[in-house]
Amino acid sequence: MNACLMYRNRDFEVVHRFGPCIADVKNDLELDTLLRAMAGEDPLIYDVAQTALLDSFSMEMETVLYRQAALRDAMANPDALRELYRLTGAAIEGKRHFHFGIFINFPSGILRSSLDLMKALVDILRQVRSIADAHGQSFSSPAFTELLAMFQREFSDAYFREIEDHLSRLKLKGGVLESARLGPGNEGVDYVLRKPDETRIPWLDRLLRRHPLRTHSGSRTATKPERGSYPSCAIVG
Q1: Are 220 and 188 a contacting pair, CB within 8 Å?
Q2: One domain for residues 194 and 213
């Protein structure tokens, strides 16, 4: 997913190193004063504004008109764009500083923390979609109309339903189902993670149903097959 706001058909890349004469140009024109006023305290905006300003000497007229149209939209809808920018920053910073806590060494703790992070990111995506729905008709430039349409297209209701389904499955309420077979020395080999049986059985039927015998060895539980069935060996962890 690319937001082509500065060029119609390609990405905008921030440049940190310019030619040897650029420092003199910045000093002569006092461009740092202008750039600091544009960026406030945001270093990203400073870098983007500097690149856009100093790398525009050979810009084509089509690109100039494309950016001017986007600028008119930005000036007409400042609140919506500031909120989109805030949500983007919140997603990046939230992922960067997410704390897994003292359970980082335990698979269950890593999974639980990862699910919490994913839920937070999904909530941000919902807010982005909401802004696109609410303000999509207020924009007219090719840059922003395509961006907001992309949000609506990519973050569809079906997309969120699928994500919620995956997150629900990853809670592993029914445990983890694996299969294996016995190798040399009766060691388990060829472990395969299996898709769990999603058949919903009423709790009373589960309570009264006849369970197969189980033997315990270490931390694993091996289920003996019932008479008439011949699976290799089912390992449930």
Answers
A1: yes
A2: yes
